[in-house]
Write a structure and sequence with these properties.
4-stranded antiparallel sheet, Nucleotide-bd_a/b_plait_sf, RNA-binding, RBD_domain_sf, 18% strand, RRM_dom
């Protein structure tokens, strides 16, 4: 039995639409990753082999060939952060004889913005087309630019830069020539620094065994340096670095982790924070590994110490040679040194000596009376 209103429904007629033609032999369009790489490289050019999508991307952002570095260039430093490329170009063209076209490239790295204005990092590279222009630009070193004396040198010259450490993890104090030890030297201390304050300050690194402060003899105040001895080598190394790592207490996080199911729990790395120990009483300290006390004592008073050398130089070469020859003998077996006789002074006669010493001198003469 037919339902009511079945015959009353009318079918919709489709409008005539042009069929879409698909070329199966066409190459596969590039992916988004390929388009990003092409956009980053900026080397896409429309050609027969490129697809229509690549050609459109190339047309939307035209490629700009990067400037090539010249073999003739200078490095300019000590710039003010507000200096621009135009300021550098004007500085060179106004103080040199070459034209503006001689400057082929100015590379000025940008730093962090301040007060909404872009700033440079304090240095720049300027390339020239000739070596003569480079030499002329180097001659402008120590000249004023926006109130600062700039430093200009050859871009290929690395003189004046600190040498890189040979081994990774080498501390700056190793440059002093002393091996890591429990005894460190602390410099740039204030005159008001005390032994108790220094010991309390460096106790953050580890247990302090001894503190020796150099003081003035009259006032007893600190001379500006001291020696600190730790019980552990790790504490001394942390003090030389200038900071110590301390684990933070994560009690709240542990309570939250207990409420979570065991499946979702993940091992977390312990949080650490730095405690800086390179400042004391508002002064930046200078720490480095000190020479071991035993080694220092041997250098000064040992077999070949400084004190022995000074004694040998005073007594003469003959006695020094005799001392070296009898060094292996025990100290008691050495012959005693002969006492030198004191020289007799014959500069004054006996009468003059008596007068100088204040002794009473008997008169030798006749008494003369006058009428």
């Amino acid at each position: 039995m037919a339902s009511i209103g079945e015959g009353t429904q009318k079918k919709r007629k489709l409008t005539d639409v042009e069929e879409i033609e698909i070329d199966v032999s066409a190459p596969e369009p590039p992916s988004k990753k390929a388009l990003r790489k092409a956009k980053k490289a900026a080397t896409v050019k429309p050609s027969e082999s490129t697809t229509e999508t690549e050609a459109v991307a190339a047309v939307e952002k035209p490629t700009t060939a990067p400037q090539k570095r010249s073999d003739h260039g200078v490095w300019i430093g000590n710039l003010a952060f507000s200096v621009t490329k135009d300021d550098l170009r004007t500085f060179f063209t106004s103080n040199c004889s070459f034209a503006d076209t001689t400057i082929t490239r100015i590379h000025m790295p940008k730093g962090a913005e301040r007060f909404g204005k872009s700033q440079n990092k304090g240095f720049a590279y300027v390339d020239f087309s000739t070596q003569k222009a480079t030499e002329e630009a180097i001659g402008l070193s120590e000249q004023l630019l926006t109130g600062r004396r700039v430093l200009i040198k050859d871009a290929k010259s690395f003189a004046g830069r600190p040498d890189k450490p040979k081994e990774d993890g080498q501390t700056g104090s190793a440059a002093s020539g002393h091996a890591p030890s429990k005894r460190i030297f602390v410099g740039n201390l204030g005159f008001d620094a005390t032994k108790e304050a220094i010991e309390e300050h460096f106790a953050q690194c580890g247990t302090v065994a001894n503190v020796h402060v150099a003081t003035f003899q009259d006032s007893g105040k600190c001379k500006g340096y001291a020696w600190v001895v730790f019980e552990d080598l790790a504490a001394a190394e942390a003090a030389v670095k200038g900071y110590v790592l301390v684990k933070e207490d994560d009690e709240e996080e542990e309570e939250e982790d207990e409420s979570e199911p065991e499946e979702r729990k993940r091992p977390r790395k312990p949080r650490q924070r730095k405690i800086w120990v390179n400042f004391l009483l508002g002064r930046r300290l200078r720490m480095e590994f000190a020479e071991d006390a035993t080694t220092r004592y041997k250098k000064r008073f040992g077999k070949d110490g400084e004190g022995k050398k000074n004694n040998n130089s005073e007594t003469g070469d003959a006695e020094a040679g005799e001392f070296e020859a009898t060094e292996e003998q025990p100290r008691q077996a050495r012959p005693p040194r002969a006492k030198q006789a004191k020289p007799e002074y014959t500069r004054y006669d006996q009468d003059t000596v008596q007068k100088l010493s204040g002794a009473i001198v008997e008169s030798k003469g006749k008494k003369t009376t006058f009428d």
